[in-house]
Amino acid sequence: ISASLHRASLYAETQENLRVLSIIQNISRTIASSLEKEKIANQVVTALKEAFGYTHISIYYLEEDYLQLAAEMGYPKEMVIEKIHISQGVSGRAIRTKTVQFIEDTTQEDMFLRADHAITSEICVPLLKDDLVLGTLNIEANHSRKLTQMDVNLLTAIASPLAIAIDNARLHEQIKKMATTDAVTGLSNRHVFEETLAAEVERAQRLGMNVSLIIFDIDGFKEFNDSYGHPAGDARLKGMADIIKNNLRKYDIAARYGGDEFAIILSNSNEKNALNFAKRLHEAAQIGAPKDSAGYTLSMGVATFPQDAANHNELLIAADHAAMRAKHLGKNRVQRASDTR
Prior knowledge:
Helices cover 48% and strands 22% of the residues. Helix 1 runs parallel beside helix 4. It is of the alpha+beta class. It has helices at residues 2-32, 37-52, 89-97, 149-180, 190-207, 221-228, 230-247, 271-284, 312-328, and strands at residues 56-63, 66-73, 83-85, 101-103, 121-129, 132-141, 211-218, 253-258, 261-267, 298-305, 333-336. The chain folds into two domains: 2-179, GAF domain (Beta-Lactamase, 2-Layer Sandwich), CATH 3.30.450.40; 190-339, 2-Layer Sandwich (Alpha-Beta Plaits), CATH 3.30.70.270.
C-alpha cells in the first residue's frame, strides 16, 4: 500500500509539473506575440490569476529611478501604489540587488509597502534581460493562501520569458520613436506633423470643430549659431522645444518643421485660444534671454480652421504666410492669418 501511495503521489506531482510547464509555455507564446508593454503586463496578470488562483498580482516597469505600475489585479483601488522609488519597498530591494525577494511574513519586514491590509506574504521577482533590470513581477497573498518555494520557482520561470518580451517591446518602442521623433528636440518630426494635421482637420470638419495651427521660427537663429557654434544652436533648439512641451496640452502636437522652424497643432482650439497660447510661448521664450542677443525672440503665425482655410493644405499655407508676415513687419511678434488677407 505504501508503494502504491508513493507511486500515486509521484504521478500526481508529475501531472502537476506537466500542467505548470504547459501553462508557462502558453504564457510565453502569448506574450511573445505582442510588442506593447501594457498589453504584455495585462496578459500575464490575467493568466496568473486564471491558471494559479493568485489573488494579488502586480507588474512594474522600471523607468529611470522609479518603478511604474503597468498592471495589477486584486488590490483596493484607493491603496494601489502607482509608483515606487528604487530605494523603497521590497520591490526596490529586488531591483537594487537583482535577486528574488520572498517575504513569508510581511509583519516582520520593515521595507514592506502595504497595498492591502490583508496581505501576509509577498514574492517579488526582478525582471532581468541579461544584466538589464526591466521591472518586477509581484505576487502577494493573504491568510487564505500560503506562498511557498514552489511559487518562487514558478514565478522565476515565468519572469524569464516575460523579461524577454518586455525588452523586445522596449526596443520596438525605441525604434518607433526614432522614426517619428526629431533627434535634437524630441518633438514630432515633419512626417508625423503632416499626417496629424491632415487627420485633425478632417476630424474637425466631420465634427464641426475648430483646429488651429501655429508656425514660428527663432529670430536671428543663424546669427546665434554662427556666434556660439552648432552645439549651442542645438541646445537652443532643445530649450525652445522644452518651453513648448511645458505649455502644451497633452492631446496637442508640436513638431520641428525644419531648421529653426516649429509647428504646433492645437486641437479643438479657436483663434482666440490659439493667440493666447502663442503669446504665452512668445513671452516664455524670452525669459532669461541675454540683452540684445539673437536667438530668443519668435516670429509667429496663427491660422484657424475653418475661418482661415478650407482644408489642411490651406491651413498650413495660411499659418506659414502669417509667420512670414510677422518677419516682414519687423520680427518678434504674433501675427494672425486673418490680418494678412
